[in-house]
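The methods section describes the discrete structure representation at length, but only in general terms. The central task, working out the structure tokens from the amino acid sequence alone, is never made concrete. Nothing conveys this as quickly as seeing an actual entry. For illustration, here is how one protein appears when written out as sequence plus structure tokens:
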Amino acid sequence: MKKDEFLKIVRSKMTKDPTAEELTFLGSMGEAIERAFQADSETRKEEVNKLTTMIGTFDEGEQVSSIIRSLAQKVDDLEAKTKRQFSSEDKYKLRQLLEDKKDEILRAKDSGANWKIEFKAKRAASALMTTATVMTGATAINNPNLLDDLEVMVIQYPKNFIIDAIGGRQVSNVPYTWRWKEQGTESTDATGATDEGGVKPLTDKTFVWKTANRAKYAGRIEFTEELTMDFEQLLLQIIDMFENQVLRAYNKAVQVALVAYCSAYTSTELDGTFTSPGTSQVVQAGKLWVENNLYEPDIIMIRPGDAALARITQNSVGDIGYLPDSVAFHGLTPFISTNVPAGTVIIGSSRTVSEQHSNFILRRGMYGDQFIENEETIVGEIFSVYKFPTISKASWVSLTIATVKGALTSGV
């Protein structure tokens, strides 16, 4: 309550204009009230009681003391409304603090001595997702003709390879270990024509267990309570971006594992048959290599720059031609990704590998001193386990473009 505000309210309650003497008196009272209202709750009550006792009643019958008391009550009501209500989680945190002080409380109780417990809280936000750090790049704008575009431009990323390419399956409970049987080595494969009365060749089959363990991909974001109040919709978009970030980490990890799983290109019938092979011929050689191992390739992983080169042809005089994807990638479904090493092409069959994953799990809570710092944490995670059979390694091939171009070039 400011002095000027007090005088304005009092004068509105009076039936006639105050005299100069009354104005001087009211000005002094206004200053006293301003000092009292700036004090804490207990001190303010004491000061207000003293002031209302001193004021008395005007001749017009209007009690200034009642005005001041009503103002003080409004301040008390406002203070009560602005106090934060304790949630069940808040109470749990306080019980933890009391539990830490349990021994101290018991000693004070047994001794009968005076004792106190002091809890300190601070509102200063740590350097996390605060309004200041999230909303950067602000500029002063004097023109009121302004449109705030609420769409946020975000970084673009490639589509999900696991879901779109190899058909990863979501399950309610991802197993810790995925175990499967693979055929082992055979003693002989000499079945076929046999002379009359001859001994049939003996062949046997063996199987071995292979396993893969579950992996978890996770992250967290931390933010202040003020951010949730000031920019609720922006925070929701940040949470969505965070979810996509975790999914990209999961997607990249599986892609990197698949690149490591691939067999290396050795040779095909296309070696030494081109005078000036391009990236498209490298793709064709990789597809043929997988087909020679009796698999049907349908996927190609390639970097953006290498994909662009695969779509371009150039003749001996430098003329440029462009190939459609169906020709450049020879019927394979392209997945253009920077997760593939530069200068490398990955070709394989989606039917020989598989993956299982959980849904994206999102949890919200507090840890450490976040309760007293008005901060929260959101944790996001996804579980995944993939099956890359050892016996099917020949269904995926990794080709170094420069090396394979050399192998395809004729000696003419």
About this structure: Confidence is low (pLDDT under 50) at residues 120-127, 150-157.
